[in-house]
Amino acid sequence: QFYRGYLIGWLFWLGIALGSLGLLMVHHQAGGAWTAVARRFMEHLPSTIVLFAVLFVPVWLARGSLFIWVSPPAGLDPVMEHAIHHKHPYLNTAFFTWRAVGYFAVWILVAYLLRSWSLKQDQNGDPGLTLKQRRLGAGALPLLALTMTFASFDWMMSLDPRFFSTIFGVYWFAGGFMSAFAVIIIAAAMTRNDPNGFGHHLSAEHLHSLGKFLLAFTAFWAYIAFSQFMLIWIANVPEEVPWYVLRINGGWKWVGAFLAVFHFLVPFFLLLSRDRKRDPVRLARVAVWLLVVQWVDVYWLVMPHLDAAGPKFTLWDLAAWVGVGGAAAAFLILRMRGSASVPVRDPYLDDSLRYLPQ
Fold first, then answer.
1. DSSP 129-196
2. CA–CA separation, 56 vs 96, rounded Å?
């Protein structure tokens, strides 16, 4: 229970950092100007990936308790035994470890370069640094997609070696991307009255657009979740269906119903309100709620393999969520010190401050 709770908390907060890195890269790839005022915070968030690399060590040390393929017990179901044997060239400790090293190397390097070039531009105002950021952001996007996909296979999907879904990485990415928008909105609301905070420079138009993105990725998460369920259920492949059977029977079916209603339907209709999207406090409340239900979603992905009867929340689960999140927040604040809250010499900053959607 403790190891699973830690894995859930670690995956949840790491998903936000990776979602923010993806958002930053998309900003550069699209040549966006309106998000420039919030870009510095988007650069700081992925810098916490260094911390998550360190916090991966407990996951690696507990791999025997988390992943059944590490030390398969005797008397396994023949289908499970066959899956573990068949996937051994991929699911083995050495390859698992080196893949994790590769994932973190890519994420840390890209996050470091984008942030360091931006901070350097604050000092010298070199517009060529903007071009370098845009080239790296666009060029490394496919690499981010691949590494996130395989990381989701390794750290979540392999909890049941029988199961496979090519859309699983997109599912994790969708939740992380949505959560990244939620964190940016919450941070903007918290700093709106601080002249040194980036939220102070955001207009109602910025908030409105951020709220629309939050709405869009709430719907995108639901679309991906339903698509995966529908395709697997219709195909009725014996290796895939049990993963959902476990989650729609017993006590877990109520968690699935909770996610359908409170991760999609309720926030979807709340975010349709134009006034709510332009109000930092009301929008931040929805964002906080979406973070809570996103944690429930990660819990629903990981925990059923421990107890098929249903969820049994413990203080360990809460402690892991708060502990990993608190460590990440402290590290984020440390990384933010000594730098401007907005990219002060970005060539598109003035356009962003005057942002009016077309």
1. HHHHHHHHHHHTHHHHHHHHHHHHHHHTGGGSTT---TTHHHHHHHHHHHHHHHHHHHHHHHTTT-TT
2. 12
Q: What is the mean pLDDT of residues 250-255?
A: 90
Averaged over 33-58, what is the pLDDT?
95
**Do 103 and 153 meet the contact criterion of CB atoms below 8 Å apart?**
no
269: left (phi over 0), alpha (psi -120 to 50) or beta: alpha
CA neighbor of 279 nearest in space, from 184, 188, 183? 188
Q: In angstroms, rounded to a whole number, what is the distance separating the alpha carbons of residues 325 and 11? A: 11
Q: Helix, strand or coil for residue 19?
A: helix
Altogether, the residues listed in the chain come to a count of 358
**Distance between CA 253 and CA 247 in Å, rounded?**
6
Structure tokens at 186: 């919450």
Paired tokens of 201: 């420079």
pLDDT at 190: 95
- Our CA dihedral for 70, 76, 82, 83, rounded to 10 degrees, sits at -50
Q: What is the pLDDT of residues 86-96, one digit of tens each?
A: 999 999 999 99
C-alpha separations of 344 from 252, 276, 350 in Å: 49, 29, 9
Nearest to 301 by CA among 144, 176, 182, 147: 176
Task: With beta carbons less than 8 A apart as the criterion, state whether 21 and 144 touch.
Answer: yes
Contact indicator for 325, 16 with CB cutoff of 8 Å: no
